[in-house]
Amino acid sequence: MTDTTIPTPQAPPPDIVRCASMELVVTDLAASRDFYVDVLGLVVTEEDEHAVYLRTLEEFIHHNLVLRQGPTAAVAAFSYRVRTPEDLDRAVGFYTELGCRVERRAHGFVRGVGDSVRVTDPLGFPQEFFHEVEHVERLAWRYDLHTPGALVRLDHFNQVTPDVPRAVRHMEDLGFRVTEDIQDGEGTTYAAWMRRKPTVHDTAMTGGDGPRMHHVAFATHEKHNIIAICDKLGALRLSDRIERGPGRHGVSNAFYLYLRDPDGHRVEIYTQDYWTGDPDNPVVTWDVHDNQRRDWWGNPVVPSWYTEASPVLDLDGVPQPVVARTDTSEMAVTIGADGFSYTRPEDAARAAAHLEDDVLPSWKQGEYKLGHQL
Amino acid sequence: MTDTTIPTPQAPPPDIVRCASMELVVTDLAASRDFYVDVLGLVVTEEDEHAVYLRTLEEFIHHNLVLRQGPTAAVAAFSYRVRTPEDLDRAVGFYTELGCRVERRAHGFVRGVGDSVRVTDPLGFPQEFFHEVEHVERLAWRYDLHTPGALVRLDHFNQVTPDVPRAVRHMEDLGFRVTEDIQDGEGTTYAAWMRRKPTVHDTAMTGGDGPRMHHVAFATHEKHNIIAICDKLGALRLSDRIERGPGRHGVSNAFYLYLRDPDGHRVEIYTQDYWTGDPDNPVVTWDVHDNQRRDWWGNPVVPSWYTEASPVLDLDGVPQPVVARTDTSEMAVTIGADGFSYTRPEDAARAAAHLEDDVLPSWKQGEYKLGHQL
Amino acid sequence: MTDTTIPTPQAPPPDIVRCASMELVVTDLAASRDFYVDVLGLVVTEEDEHAVYLRTLEEFIHHNLVLRQGPTAAVAAFSYRVRTPEDLDRAVGFYTELGCRVERRAHGFVRGVGDSVRVTDPLGFPQEFFHEVEHVERLAWRYDLHTPGALVRLDHFNQVTPDVPRAVRHMEDLGFRVTEDIQDGEGTTYAAWMRRKPTVHDTAMTGGDGPRMHHVAFATHEKHNIIAICDKLGALRLSDRIERGPGRHGVSNAFYLYLRDPDGHRVEIYTQDYWTGDPDNPVVTWDVHDNQRRDWWGNPVVPSWYTEASPVLDLDGVPQPVVARTDTSEMAVTIGADGFSYTRPEDAARAAAHLEDDVLPSWKQGEYKLGHQL
Amino acid sequence: MTDTTIPTPQAPPPDIVRCASMELVVTDLAASRDFYVDVLGLVVTEEDEHAVYLRTLEEFIHHNLVLRQGPTAAVAAFSYRVRTPEDLDRAVGFYTELGCRVERRAHGFVRGVGDSVRVTDPLGFPQEFFHEVEHVERLAWRYDLHTPGALVRLDHFNQVTPDVPRAVRHMEDLGFRVTEDIQDGEGTTYAAWMRRKPTVHDTAMTGGDGPRMHHVAFATHEKHNIIAICDKLGALRLSDRIERGPGRHGVSNAFYLYLRDPDGHRVEIYTQDYWTGDPDNPVVTWDVHDNQRRDWWGNPVVPSWYTEASPVLDLDGVPQPVVARTDTSEMAVTIGADGFSYTRPEDAARAAAHLEDDVLPSWKQGEYKLGHQL
User: Residues of C with CB below 8 A from D231's CB?
Assistant: First the structure.
């Protein structure tokens, strides 16, 4: 864990309404367009040879995802909508006081939005804030355009950062509230979920080498919509885009699926978390050894899900250097040589004594559990 | 492969309507009752201290599953309903000609059925046939009794046998038709699905050391019912009963889940295969190396699913000796040291040349793929 | 009720596998194609300027529906698949003995089928039988082609006939079995459901002026698929094609929706009835006054559903004359001036005494209940 | 329309987080408990012989519904949670300035909440505000307790008031924002939906004789959950509790069902509206003559739904007098003698010219359309 706490600015933070879009740099725009439009069914608001602007079916702002052709697959912006035009001034003040690089463009960094601020935040992430935006048709009622796997909203981001508590404190300064987290008995935090809108999260901080982007998540209405996406990937002989799931999360209680796009960017499809908008919404803390925390059904997390993530760019488009996590990793403490997990809390003590053969059946031990290969 | 083909009897086979029930020997009747009744929601038709008779919600015959207390977890009978009382005479004639041990009881081997024939068939399985049966209330309309994971029908059995083509020929003699199978380019058959009723199967033959029982399957109406079973197992901290899935099968196109009961008996929950009742229903043959054959989404099959199965009993209640499979195993040719799988048929050649790192991403290679541990 | 019982032929009936397709005469082929293909998503197997051949997504025979341009909207054939080529000889023998007009064409009456027999049956319906058929791709696994309202099978026909018991006896001679019916305490039968395949029906006989075609039904996998069809019709501003539902049937326990095509032909979308294939499958008889018989939720049946139906053609393409029903009609005895319905059996006596204001709340009394207008 | 605009107070309104609970007076507490607990599956937090406190499965505050035994079926409180304790002072100031009767109790009017303010608002409704509340277990993960029709959240209220624009202006003063409304070309507003939380509404104002309570709505996760409630009501022979639906709303785009409890209080079950939390969320205005506004499938609204509603109480428990609506009623202008509706906007002119037989088929004209009885 680093010893450098990020100071809390005196300047008030912008009033963030919600996560609103991500700008993804992709290395083959046509291939990415195929994936997001033809396979996943996102709607093209506009496009040219350099970029495609996509939105979900219930969105009324210009876009939720920008695909931009570039030399290296990376994230150019995590973009949030703020409540008023004046919140952009607040964003400038907040990050300037923190010594961050801040750039503001009256006509936006991408099409469809107006006055915008981009910063490299103290965690190394490219954050964007905007208020002005072009309205487009909300296609909620256009069922003639809906597919079996209809994506209806951008739900959240997920970011990889080495020191989760440090990142959480900074995000709380920015006005986020923690809804759930994963810890262990020794005081290590492995991940935390934070929200502005009253769902489980607008973004999460996942412990790991960072700054990197873990995933961007889109919501469907029902669970069968997510299953339909898998079925379609199978039909297209693209099932190897499915990295993990579908399953039920412990954290968030949502039904989920993780895909990898043609550049390896991870996309989650997500549905049915819960209301968190009360001021005293109870924080749910999960034990890192609880085998149901990441998958409520105890299905193993594939190692790539823990280790792989996308680079993020600075404001010049240069990939940010990655700092290694020094705290123990969730993968190591759960499926590594010394790790353990349990299904029932009463089995935790026996599991901790490394009697894991007794407490998890073979099919729940996961892919790379040492000593359990054929 | 054995060289002993089972002869085709001159005697006509009984006219089998459908798979109708299984008799399971369990070592802790109370624990099994908890699992099948309290967790899975099967309905108790009647019970005493030795046995529990269970049925699904749309069943009108006495039972689809008998749990009987016994010293060793095993299968005592795969039980089929025949069209007429006279079909029992045909069953006696058919198996007697084959030299099988045949036992007939006018009042049945279990409660709720009348005149019944049990045999140890040439493959070593305890098969039962009956026509007379007590009718009970069909609870199809009793939605006040339905749970989120409502099991509505017994769908099929699955049997492990060393020599699949030999078993298939015998089952065809008994009147079954193949609907799908898994083969390789060298002529090895790994599994075959066979039906009497017009679904994908009443039973399947899975290649492996046998005779053993691979699983018994119950049907739900919709996919969310299967998800609800997983969610409930999570809530009860019994998620380690989930062995594999949920997922979409390639074979059968059904949505599935595999559970293990307190004795390790495997239970499938299954929904939405297709009509196979036409006389010329096309047989679907899958390449064993097609990574979507067992899971349409390419999710890896856990090794226990290939290797573990339940003993079956002879007519004296003694576990049948198990004969080893001599053909190559599906696990070995797909995830073993020399195995390979592909997502796209055009990648098969490269995969066969053991370039599997190129053709399957790490997250699809499965748990025990040699050389891919951390 | 007519006094002319149809004799039972000495000749054996053909062995019918299932209802397989309907030939519909439509007055605007382009409009009908829009409805069945663009709105409902049936798949075009082939077409020319006179006819469109359509199939469902899990079908492997050439078609389940033929749309043929013609001068008058009508049904040209209720078409059944038989088990063997020889069953066509049986069909000829069976109907010839009954004195029916019988026509046989070695190359079929429509494309995609071979040797076929068409008859005008004793009830006045154009029945077709065929065995030989062109196989086409079963699109069950082609999820890339599935829509949110995917139609996967032809499920059944429904025919209007004046004398239901007479029709039932004839269909039993043809090898059908009754699964459910609607009667009253005075011995009148209002409708009956009959099956060859082991579902609730391949066809039903509905009491009314006939011979006419009440509806043709296609199956979906899940209930949300049916809802998706309604949602799409709304989006297309075609919601007035929805005549009744969606709802849950009492009879059959299926989830349903009734649409009217551009010519007024009624199409049902249907899912999740139950297994009926046992030889002693219990017949379910519903009281005509049970308000949950046609809609399990007691929602009123719209009068057009009782009164409107499509003409059927003779073998020369001339609409069959319609004979009036002489038994009381279901509409009259339930929502007419002297009709009554009840939700709870124990309320039946009070309802019969015409205290219907007491036993059904206003919102359940239906559209045209006399004396209940504003 | 009344000419008495409610003044906008100088005092700031309380910061309302969400609609949180309703207190219903019921005349037979046992019968109501049966309905809400045994049929609908709400969870009892606590109860005594006078009252039952119920919550939904994802709720963490003490209750969402209070059933209190009383002499007359009525609503005692529409209860909102406010952000801070100080918001109760604001509520007192806001309503005091409006001259309303205001009562504050440090220990709450019901169990489970602390300091609370109740007022009779200028529209005659009993509004309650509270911040302090007892936390109870959020049962989101307790799938062992979920039923097929699991109710997971309180979603909204719906209030009947004679002058909708007047009510809307007042609710805007209280901090609500309009998301959708129904109007006609002459400037009459028939209903409006307003939100604090970012869904389509926390409450709606429906034009009619008022103040009365139109309904209280609970949310499910998926559409099949709502269907399961209907199916269960059928199984319990309580289908006459279903007043309208299930269906898809035009307004809100949600899937819905309306029930009537043992006292006739209307309860909606509701799922899947859309995000409205952006400051410039587009207001959707529906034409009162659009036949898809209330049911996207054009299914007729039953007259009772327009005319019947529950009394509301003043702070002494006396039913509020009802003031008649003077604007035209939605029922009159759509299904009354001079009313008309259309499915397609381009048909509106012909419909307005009273050619309604041409523009709506008989099955869409609704129950009491004059001149369309049998």
Answer: 248, 296-297
